Batch of 2 targets.
Target 1
Amino acid sequence: MALSFDGINDRIDYPSVHTPVGGPFSFACRFSLSAASENEYFLLVESGVSDFGLTIWLRDDAGQQGLAVTCSGANASVLRYSAPQALVIDIWYDLIVTWDGNSSASNIHIYLNGTELNYVTSTDGAAPLRAQDGNWIIAGRAIDNLRNFSGRLADVGAWNVILSEAQRAMFNAGQPPARIQGASLVFDARFVGGNTIDAVTLNSGLKYGNPQTFGHPTNIVAINSLAGTFRQTVVSSNDSPLPSTVNVAAGAILPSNGQSVFSTVLQVASSITVEDNFEGGNTDIGRVQIANTSSVSPLITLYARPNRNIEGNSPSQIYYSLACRLTGVSGKAPTFRFNLTDENPNSIYGAGGWPADWRAWFSYDQLSWQRLSNSSVVGNFQEVSGDSVFTEDTVYIATRLPYNPSRVNSHTDAIMTNSVVSEPASSLGKNFIYGQSATTTRDGDGVVVPALNLISYRISNDASGPIDGTLKRKAVLISGQHASEDQGNWQLEAFVNFLLNDSVIANELLRDWEFFVYPMVNPSGRWGNAYRGTLQEGQRGVDPNRDWPGGSASGRLQVVSATRLAIEQDTGNRITAFIDFHGRLRETDSIFRFPNSINDSFVQSVNARHPVNSVVSSAAEGIAETYYRTALGVPLSVTSEGSAVVTSVSEYALLGEAIAKALNDCFREGLFHSHSLSVSGAFQVPNQLANVGNVENQLAQISIAELWLS
Ligand SMILES: [Zn+2]
């Protein structure tokens, strides 16, 4: 806030604060005039009870105002008057005065909006100057009302040092007096909320007249340097929590009168930096191009970092993703160009352009993401932009919605206190952590990927069970096998959140099932934003979903082995449903499954439960899925492949929830029936489904898992 003085009889008197004369001194304030002024005082430091000492004032010279400093002397006063300034009513200005405390006028410096003024009068005084040991008076003088200030004052401060250029720049950049680093404050009356307390002496100023509270100029435009574009933030007089921020040309700057909070920042030609050395980053920094840096809409061209860790040197570009961190973009609305044609190894999506509804995303914190509205193909690039300027200086950009290992940690933290969530055997007593990925480095550069948690948790209502008295079924949910398929993790998180939402269906699921959840099988690959792999040293070419028993490169990856063993430890591999959540970038939502009656019924239920999308079923089969179906006889074993083409995170939730509901539907339909036939002891439980052929024909259709349940 600021205080408004009427120019008639308003002023504020403080008891003696500091004696400027004889030592270094600086004074600063922000002011805006409400009328074409005559001679008016900003500050009078009295000598003794009422004599003039130091006066910092607005001097009227034949109707033109200059800034002036007078240090009274018994014999001759020090005078320094600036040339007249074309001061505009209702525009905020920064005023800074510095003085060495002695009688030479040349050591008085007057700065307006950061620029030292030219002087029309510089008259040296004669020692001794007057004592300057009396009251400090703001906006007038005690002896009469002939010099009262008419306008607003804010950030009124003084120091017993001469402010350096850097310190003056801080004040001009909007910092209040208390934040001018390295300078010793002697007076700090910011008039916040109309309060007149000097934060240094803690003395309240005595108000004369009736100074009014007015909006504070948070950052003052350097009015003498009006080239360029300004960002203005205006909050309504009732302190609306939703400020309006706009970019305006110099001539369109809004005056600050009447605003509760008002901020104007010159959009200087800042340097924009692009980085990718953070969790989930993936940008070829050496190829970044930035044009029109100083404009509101710089053009930023981006290429993904070379990353060849899977299936030879030419991974399919449709799985590739790019993420970077920008700094220096507050107040800017950049246009981004993503390479489409340099397909191997690092184009984003590929020639022909992105699908119609695919967009890039931005975030200020990597937690909350917003979609950039506009996308089109321009030459060899996908050109993407938003509709408004960024409001923070640091912005994350990603070509798909990132789901990073840190989100798994925070989500687990958020749910672990729920009464139905517990540590399964694999992470019992280990804070839900069953292992860690090994420290490694990213592909394409040497950035260290830290060791990252492998997390497991169990969700079930242990106070209840299936109404037919059979044992609870066990379901295993995994995601994050493939580094670039964040969609799977969003689906799994939605599935878990659905389980915990206390709905009728969720409570039936918690009654009938034990869910064993492994939300991020490949955290290092995700951290390094790899294509599919884990970045495990020596095994960078191995796809995690080929590493399960029976896969083309099985048993090489530490994280897959650890997860497989954790599942075995937690469930005894007596599993009724295994769901592996993945993602695809091009296609619509899909369920990969081996065509059999249970899997097909499940896909039908997912479709029935999905309110928007048609979920395609594919006879392609993920390797983990195949392993649990064939080697361990799991009745329902599917891989969910969520599309990357979404308009919000909630679309992933639709698929995750549809899968949860479909699982319940299939249970209700009796697909996971538990036979009353007692087989325990009738024969040894075989390890291979093929051995079921030894059992009587009527049992052949019953999977091993079902037998375990009986
Ligand atoms: Zn995948």
Target 2
Amino acid sequence: MAKVIKVDNGNGTFVFVKKDLKGKEDGISLCSQCPKRNKDSRYSNCHISNKIYELEMLFGLKLPVLECPSYNGEFEDVADAKPVQVEKDSTEEEV
Ligand code: SF4
């Protein structure tokens, strides 16, 4: 089982994190390689990423994306990959 540590998140709040994953959100998140992400503008940023950011702010979380049906960056096609059905929120804009 991974060791969990308690650290300051940089904003004066203490959070718990698996020690080996501390500070590695960008390295493991698909968003860091996706052209839909624009960290500089929430208006042109991916709508999914904006929702994730809202959750992060609301609960003090870090939420890297490990799987995403809307990823638009480079990828390697895998022959045995199976499609994933995702229901769309009718209030979301198409990106
Ligand atoms: S489409 Fe998916 S991978 Fe790309 S920025 Fe949005 S949430 Fe991240």
